[in-house]
Amino acid sequence: MAARSDKGAAVFPKAVEPAPHQKPDAVSLYAALDLGTNSCRMLVAQPKGSQFHVIDSFSKSVQLGRGLEQHGSLSRASINRTIAALKVCRKKLDHHKVKNMRLVATEACRRASNCAEFMARVTGETGLTLEIIRPEEEARLAVISCAPLVSRHTEQLLVVDIGGGSTELVWVDLSKVAPTERARAIMRLKQGLKPGQGGSPFPVAEVVDWISVPVGVATLKDQFSDVSDDSARFALMSCHFEELIAGFSPYQTASEGPAQSNFQVIGTSGTVTTVAASHLGLRRYDRGKVDGLRMTSGQIDTVVKEYLAMGVHGRQRDPRIGKDRQALILSGVAILQTLMRVWPTDRLSVADRGLREGLLYAQMSADGVLEDGPV
């Protein structure tokens, strides 16, 4: 996406409310599609105040990256499942006559040797053109999506996005930003995640460091699929992930780094929301109860112990986990628990939001269609 001036990110005209039962004006609609290693997700939304209102959505587990770790390419079955899901997305886009959209693909497509062939099939069979974004852009958008959950007391922020094929970690310094402006400063993160961003007339959220680890819930699971014992596999996955983040500078200086009192970790992923749902004992998922929930390390540890005690069959039957998530939940919590262990905080803010929301916020902010008010 071409760079825009900061002016569009801070000056927001009033949103237009559609009349009751009136179909939203297609010109005002925006769409964001995220094709990840495990899932295909899309949102169609309309600006509403400083937020947006979801008009339509789609989510499907397509397992695009299944077998990618072993073979280095996307399988025919995975491609067929994904194209079938993308055809549904195309119908929804056509139905709503959406003109403003950004359709992106991430780690599986970045790594697959047959990605060009896959993209040609997508365009030929669905008419959609997907943009393969860099890890840096994926991380930036994940941070933007979490802006509404940033506390006014937060001076140091870590955003964790645990995907299917990669995990993005972004450390942001908000200490120079007024407490009332901290969430909006996150929204203004523009091109790149370069430390020491400056030259803006607005309060700046400064990215101290960031990393994209080429391991997510699906790829980590595949790497240790030959270990049959749950506890042994979990321990190996945890140790492996900790080794991969050893070069991340906040990890190296954690003992001298930000204090717990002003440090916030926000986690965004299916793993994080599933752990939250399990902690709350939800038999039916409720986004309103999960999004924005704060959990302690002890509460997360309790849920992890429950997952290990259940065994494979117990996790398969647990409605809090869900059939699409049960095969990936152990690798996901291995990543999550490791991060909570090595960072200077004992609390996690749960975000039921991610790349799609970041794509929508970024598009709407650049077009100046969000209202200037509390994020």
Description:
This protein has a 6-stranded mixed beta sheet with strand order 8-7-6-9-11-10, sandwiched between helices. A 5-stranded mixed beta sheet has the order 3-2-1-4-5, with helices on both faces. A hairpin with a 3-residue loop joins β1 and β2. By secondary structure, the protein is α/β, with parallel strands linked by helices. α8 packs across α14. The chain has 2 domains: 140 residues, ATPase, nucleotide binding domain (Nucleotidyltransferase, domain 5, 2-Layer Sandwich); 204 residues, 2-Layer Sandwich (Nucleotidyltransferase, domain 5). It is 41% helix and 19% strand. The radius of gyration is 20 Å and the shape is globular. The longest helix has 21 residues.
- As for the CATH topology of the largest domain, it is Nucleotidyltransferase, domain 5
N-to-C order of helices and strands: HEEEHHEHHEHEEHEHHHEHHEHHEH
* Biggest pleated sheet: 6 strands, mixed
Per CATH, the class of the largest domain reads Alpha Beta
DSSP E strands, number: 11
Which overall shape is indicated by the principal axes computed on the Cα atoms?
Answer: globular
Distance between the termini: 23 Å
Give the number of domains. 2
Strand order of the largest sheet: 8-7-6-9-11-10
The percent range for strand residues is: 15-25%
